[in-house]
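Predict the 3D structure for this chain.
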Amino acid sequence: DVFESSLEDIIIDEDTYFEISLIGAAEDADGDVITYIAEPIDDNAPIVCEIEDNMLKVTPSADHNGVYGINLTAYDDIEENIYESNTLSQTIPFYLNVESINDPPTLINTIEDFVFEEELYFNQNYFLLDLDHYIVDVDELVMSQDILTHFVVSDNQHITPLLNQDGSGLSFVIDDDID
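Done. Predicted structure below.
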């Protein structure tokens, strides 16, 4: 039996899949039917390998990236009896490199308007909200890869928005010159 494959290491973007035809990927000198099985080398790899109608489809879990090994195995003569004594197989490993895509942050809660009308609030720093409860980054949650940073501006010259040291807490100062 001869197993020839054009499979080389594959590079795809995160949140996509890889698909290739296995027709003619292996030849059997006896003319036996070739059956394929594909599976991740690491049982915990966040990828799914499916073969249907001689098409191999490898799909990473959503928002996952990294390099994952895959074993593609060709078996001959197992269509009728997988335990036949002359069943032969050959395995070829290849690697799927899923490249990271920087996903945009997601607003998970609406930030209400803030209204302060009393003089009590002048020239003091008031904590309003923790932005981590309102905005999330899937890359940080799933793969621990990104750090979400916030930037706040005010179009009112008398109101100064401030972020705390870790950048997630929003507070403000209203100066006493406000009308």
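The two ends are 88 Å apart (CA to CA).
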